[in-house]
């Protein structure tokens, strides 16, 4: 009950109120203990939410025989010892109708209070129902009562339903290892759902559009209201069922492996792009082409990458597994063919080639003139020792070595 409204002062003496009127009845100031039904004029100044100079009804409370419910959200505090007490005039007879009504109201209040206590106890019991079960995977959110580290992903493998206020869950690492103390409170863990900053491993790639595959590690940058996941490495939306959250231990192992992969490359290395060409951040770069490493480990907006260049477009940024390091000898061969605008071992009609392996045709070391190149092989005119004349013969590209490309022959217009 809040402070009473409509209380009128009827009489005062020496500046203090001695008689008031409330709801048509007169109340006179009395000394001694207060009774239920009296009015209290609060004169203190330090009880929370009790207003100095306000009037309050005295009722029977839960914790005190007689108390005043003041402006405190339903909490009962006794302020009687800091109040002037006023009692209804001619209301001291217990045989009057008013006293019987007051007694009835008091009994009703007691019944309501008892019901409220019972309901609170039931609600408390319902609130203690455990949230997690055996087999659930959860994330550690706080340290202190156990041996886990904040951020660890663990599995609950034992639940104590009778733990009460104690730690009800016993957890272990996902690899099955149990710490010395693995018991945790419910407020020390949270459901294992992705959040911004998490590392995710792709385990069930579905709608990849070629941007990712099983085994790839991705970093969460946003999760929408539907639960779809956006990652730093590309623009394709990830579904929760495609990935699993990596544990702290797994991330450390992965980072160590990544460092080892980057260590394979050095500035100036020749590398072949094996995947990702044409897509950001490798637009302008083609799979199968050879490029030069500019920086072996460069922090790009999508994470650490190997920075590559070809002198024609802006830098490209590839993960170590998108590159294949080639030998210096192979690099020289590639550059030699590239200088005439061709891929390695790309022959054309009109080329002059040396026979390096003879399939019963022109002798090894002799020159032939290529007349046709198609998917079935190469035709070239050369000297046949057995027949003593020139003729066309079929060769594989491995049988020949380019001597003069057709573009550089002076004997042809």
**Helicity level:** 10-25%
Query: What sequence of helices (H) and strands (E) makes up the elements?
Result: EEEEEEEEHEEEEEEEEEHEEEEEHEEEEE
**Termini Cα gap:** 112 Å
Radius of gyration: 45 Å
SS-based class: alpha+beta
- Uncertain segments are 92-96
Instruction: Please list the strands of the largest sheet in the order they lie side by side.
Output: 1-2-3-8-4-5-6-7
Number of strands: 27
Our estimate of the beta-strand percent is: 25-35%
**How does the major sheet shape up?**
8 strands, antiparallel
Tertiary shape: rod-shaped
The mean pLDDT is 83
Number of helices: 3
List the helices and strands and how they pair.
Elements: E1 8-13, E2 16-22, E3 25-30, E4 39-42, E5 55-59, E6 67-69, E7 76-77, E8 83-88, H1 97-127, E9 137-140, E10 153-159, E11 169-173, E12 183-184, E13 189-191, E14 199-202, E15 217-223, E16 229-231, E17 243-245, H2 248-262, E18 270-273, E19 290-300, E20 303-309, E21 316-318, E22 323-325, H3 328-338, E23 352-355, E24 367-374, E25 377-384, E26 389-395, E27 400-404
Antiparallel strand pairs: 1-2, 2-3, 3-8, 4-5, 4-8, 5-6, 6-7, 9-10, 9-13, 10-11, 11-12, 14-15, 14-17, 15-16, 18-19, 18-22, 19-20, 20-21, 23-24, 23-27, 24-25, 25-26
């Amino acid at each position: 009950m809040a402070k009473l409204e409509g209380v009128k002062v009827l009489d005062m003496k020496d500046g203090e109120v001695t008689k008031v009127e409330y709801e048509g009845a007169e109340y006179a100031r009395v000394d001694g203990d207060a009774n239920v039904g009296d009015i209290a004029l609060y004169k203190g100044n330090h009880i929370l939410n009790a207003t100095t100079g306000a009037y309050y009804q005295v009722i029977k409370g839960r914790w005190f025989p007689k108390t005043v419910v003041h402006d405190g959200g339903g909490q009962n505090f006794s302020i009687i010892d800091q109040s002037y007490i006023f009692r209804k005039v001619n209301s001291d007879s217990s045989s009057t109708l008013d006293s019987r009504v007051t007694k009835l109201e008091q009994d009703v209040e007691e019944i309501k209070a008892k019901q409220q206590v019972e309901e609170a106890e039931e609600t408390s019991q319902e609130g203690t129902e455990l949230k997690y079960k055996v087999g659930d995977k959860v994330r550690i959110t706080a340290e202190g009562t156990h041996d886990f580290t904040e951020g660890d992903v663990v599995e609950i493998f034992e639940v104590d339903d009778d733990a009460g206020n104690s730690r009800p869950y016993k957890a272990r690492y996902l690899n099955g290892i149990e710490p010395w103390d693995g018991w945790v409170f419910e407020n020390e863990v949270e459901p294992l759902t992705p959040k911004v900053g998490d590392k995710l491993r792709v385990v069930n790639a579905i709608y990849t559009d070629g941007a990712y595959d099983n085994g790839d590690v991705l970093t969460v940058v946003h999760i929408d209201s539907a639960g779809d996941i956006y990652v730093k490495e590309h623009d394709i939306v990830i579904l929760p069922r495609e990935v699993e959250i990596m544990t702290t231990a797994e991330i450390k192992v992965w980072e160590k492996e990544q460092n080892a992969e980057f260590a394979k490359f050095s500035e100036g290395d020749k590398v072949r792009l094996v995947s990702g060409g044409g897509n950001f951040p490798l637009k302008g770069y083609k799979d199968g082409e050879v490029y030069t490493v500019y920086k072996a480990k460069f922090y790009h907006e999508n994470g650490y990458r190997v920075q590559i260049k070809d002198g024609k477009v802006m830098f490209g940024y590839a993960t170590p597994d998108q590159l294949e390091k080639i030998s210096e000898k192979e690099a020289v061969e590639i550059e030699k063919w590239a200088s005439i605008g061709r891929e390695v071992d790309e022959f054309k009609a009109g080329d002059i080639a040396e026979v390096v392996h003879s399939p019963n045709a022109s002798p090894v070391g002799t020159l032939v003139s290529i007349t046709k190149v198609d998917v079935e092989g190469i035709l070239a005119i050369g000297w046949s020792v057995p027949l003593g004349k020139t003729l066309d013969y079929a060769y594989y590209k491995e049988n020949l070595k380019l001597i003069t490309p057709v573009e550089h022959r002076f004997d042809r217009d």
